[in-house]
Design a protein that fits this description.
This protein is 28% helix and 23% strand. The radius of gyration is 22 Å and the shape is globular. The chain is built from 10 helices and 18 strands. It is α/β, with parallel strands linked by helices and 372 residues long. Helix 4 (90-99) crosses helix 5 (112-125) and helix 6 crosses helix 7 (183-202). The strands form 2 sheets. Strands 1, 2, 11, 12, 13, 14, 15, 16, 17 and 18 form a 10-stranded mixed beta sheet that branches. The protein has helices at 18-34, 49-57, 68-74, 90-99, 112-125, 147-158, 183-202, 240-245, 276-279, 335-340, and strands spanning 4-5, 13-17, 38-39, 63-65, 80-83, 104-109, 129-134, 163-169, 209-212, 229-230, 255-263, 269-272, 293-295, 303-306, 311-314, 327-332, 344-349, 352-358. Bound molecules: pyridoxal-5'-phosphate. Pyridoxal-5'-phosphate binds at residues 42, 64, 84, 171, 214-216, 231-235.
């Protein structure tokens, strides 16, 4: 269908302000170019080859993915893919390795088992897969705890004929203080990274690429000494958490959930048709803020409670009294989850819906088994 207006869309719907998104993409491209950093955006936020192609057009060196499905879909538009997730298990490793037949593929890993799985899959597929050794610099999720362990893994990778040691990766996801309060955390990161890099160099396994980066630290990435590549994902749309951290302005939040007020029967509240299945149940992580989303045009109104298809707007702090049938736009706390909950996203300029696109890399692309 050709262009139509926002008020005709069925709700709930994920709606992207195209002007805001374009500004977000442009700004990150300019920042990384200015600081000589390679930008390898994480596609988990948009899961769309259309947007990935735009990131590449603006200078991204490649893409970062978390799942085999994301990597497969992105291979339509990109020939340099990082799977920043441990390639453990033969099915996962085989899917990733097969992609190396048509693209440069790199994985991030932190165990001998992961090395064995991806080496075997690469050998089987007759390809070479690159490896970043993952170091934990404070997130405490994945990554070896010290440089000596990173040296040991790098040597194991180098010893595998089907693998190529390409660098070091870390994820500073633990740095969630306000951007202006990140000095100490960034200094600590620089120091631990610096001493790890010295030790890797002494052991003759200096990484060519040092891959880090997140959206909360995006604009201060150049202060983390030693980083050559960054992988922000959320910055494409931003969200309520990103704005609260100060890594974007509220006006940089490009994706909202368009919703309709379906009930005002209970005093003091209004109910919208966006519940957990439209917004996710994401709290504000690490920053101040109640509820599961806030209205774009009335920041004082938050989604205080939810059922699967109901979102309860708390009207205690506003004199706004919506009527049944009114429409609102909710800025979600965590945008990546919202995208993942939708088949389709709409791109708008003002009140005009310019186009829609499918969230092509959502889901897992699992193997189907027919009954015998
Ligand atoms: C390994 C890795 N790199 C990069 C990112 C992107 O970070 P952000 O969501 O802050 O943009 C993530 C996010 O989960 C991640 O897990």
């Amino acid at each position: 269908m050709s262009a139509q207006t926002l008020d005709l869309l069925e709700t709930p719907a994920a709606v992207v302000d195209l002007g805001r998104m374009e500004r977000n993409l442009q700004r990150a491209a300019e920042y990384t170019a200015q600081h000589g950093l390679a930008l390898r955006p994480h596609v988990k936020t948009h899961k769309s080859p259309l947007i990935a192609a735009e990131q590449l057009r603006l200078g991204a060196v490649g893409l970062t993915c978390a799942t085999p499905m994301e990597a497969e879909v992105m291979s339509q538009v990109c020939n340099d893919l990082l799977v920043a997730y441990p390639p453990v298990g033969s099915a996962r490793a085989a899917r990733i390795a097969r992609l190396a037949e048509r693209a440069k593929v790199t994985v991030a890993l932190d165990s001998e088992r992961a090395i064995a799985d991806i080496a075997a899959a690469a050998k089987e597929a007759g390809v070479t897969v690159g490896v970043y050794v993952e170091l934990d610099l404070g997130m405490h999720r994945v990554g070896v705890p010290d440089a000596a362990s990173a040296v040991a893994l790098a040597r194991r990778v180098i010893a595998e004929p089907s693998l190529e040691y390409r660098g070091l990766a870390f994820y500073p996801g633990h740095v969630r203080e306000a951007v202006s309060d990140q000095d100490a955390a960034l200094r600590a990161l620089s120091e631990s990274l610096g001493s790890a890099l010295d030790e890797l160099a002494r052991a003759d396994v200096a990484p060519k690429v040092v891959s880090g980066g997140s959206t909360p630290t995006l604009w201060r990435s150049h202060e983390i000494k030693g980083v050559t590549e960054i992988r922000p994902g959320t910055y494409v749309f931003n969200d309520r958490t990103t704005a609260a951290v100060g890594a974007c302005e509220r006006d940089d939040c490009a994706l909202t959930v368009l919703a309709t007020v379906v009930s005002t029967a209970v005093p003091g509240q209004a109910v919208i048709d966006a519940g957990t299945k439209a917004l996710g149940r994401e709290p504000m992580r690490g920053v101040e803020g109640e509820g599961f989303g806030a209205l774009r045009d009335r920041p004082e109104v938050v989604v205080a409670r939810m059922s699967e298809e109901h979102g309860i707007l708390d009207l205690a702090r506003t004199d706004w009294r919506p009527r049944v049938g009114d429409r609102v736009r909710v800025i979600p706390n965590h945008v990546c989850i919202v995208v993942h909950l939708n088949d389709l996203v709409y791109g708008v300029r003002g009140a005009t819906v310019e186009r829609s696109w499918r969230v092509e890399a959502r889901g897992r692309g699992q193997l189907e088994i027919a009954s015998a």
